[in-house]
Amino acid sequence: MLPYGKQYIDKSDISEVVKVLQSDFLTQGPKVKEFEESLAKYCGAKYAVACANGTAALHLAYLAAGIKKGDEAITTPNTFAATANMLMAIGAKPVFCDIRSDTYNIDEENIKKFITKRTKVIVQVHFAGQSCEMKKIKKIAKKHKLIIIEDACHALGGKYEGEKIGSCKYSDMAIFSFHPVKSITTGEGGAVLTNNKKYYEKLLSFRSHGIHKDKNGKNVMVELGYNYRITDIQCALGISQLKKLDKFIKERQRVVKWYEEELGDFKKIILPNVLPENYSSWHIYVIRTAKKNDRDKLKKYLQDKGIGVNFHYPAVYSHPYYRNNGYKNIRLKNMEEYHTTCITLPCYTQLERKDIKYIGEVIREFFKK
């Protein structure tokens, strides 16, 4: 079976982890800070706070931004549920804006019509590794005095207008995930990047129970926080992986080129599109069937032929939990068309030309039946 995603771990990664296992610190040691500094430097941001996973990173960012019960956050339905779940967890209301039909990112032209006096933040997701139109979103946020939090969990290694995603040039904070199918992995893990010192200090506090040292060096809890810490073991792996990130992205770009060569002229499916100002990290490769009724049949056919596929994503508002909690009647036109036709094909660094050729042949074979 060709999985839809897979990590790449080599001897240098293993060696760095073993060094930590043989050291004095497995957690709360020097590797955490080293990883944070390396990540911030790579992205061009002032500060990075590493944490347990991408979901924890979202929660930390929402808390640091001061989002509270009753606040509204404009976001996309085309994302993993965690983006909206952590808003719900703090009592805020996710307000879903439809997606663009070309990039499947939030439609920045529609954001304005969802802004109310309760709106506090815009949380856009760089779907599949391609940046949203951040200049336009920044202009809207500035006019209405809104916070911008980039869910960039798909996008480490990507660029927008020549700037690394995560630089926070157009946002207040940016979120990353280091799950094994992402650009780099720490096993599980996440991070929040920012250029704002106040947010940085809040993130550090909320990450570790809200506990600080007082003037006498005594640990005192000054606010409600959580244990969202990441280990030195994970960060050692992250530091090693980060050194290979640009190579990983180039290899993903190569896979995408192969898909375009195999399927670019095939009218039964729709290939993903990248805007000229973007350099996608290609976290995932999502095609669409031209006809809705073909999607599920094609999925089964591919799986029967040993090709792992997935769906990214069903609309967040379509999940039973959301249907039962205030989103029963929401239907967004572009999202509905997208999430009934999308299929995620394998995309990771170890794929070879012959693998993509085989996938292309199987897809063409299906439509000849």
What tags apply to this protein structure?
Aspartate Aminotransferase, domain 2; 12 helices; 36% helix; 3-stranded antiparallel sheet; Aspartate Aminotransferase, domain 1; alpha/beta; 369 residues; single chain; 2 domains; 16% strand; 7-stranded mixed sheet; globular
**CATH superfamily annotation of the largest domain:** Type I PLP-dependent aspartate aminotransferase-like (Major domain)
Q: Provide the spatial order of strands within the biggest beta sheet.
A: 1-9-8-5-4-2-3
CATH architectural name of the largest domain = 3-Layer(aba) Sandwich
Supply the number of helical segments: 12
GO molecular function: pyridoxal phosphate binding; transaminase activity
Active site: 182
Family: Belongs to the DegT/DnrJ/EryC1 family.
Organism: Candidatus Falkowbacteria bacterium CG02_land_8_20_14_3_00_36_14
Quick summary of this structure?
With 369 residues, the chain is α/β, with parallel strands linked by helices. The protein is 36% helix and 16% strand.
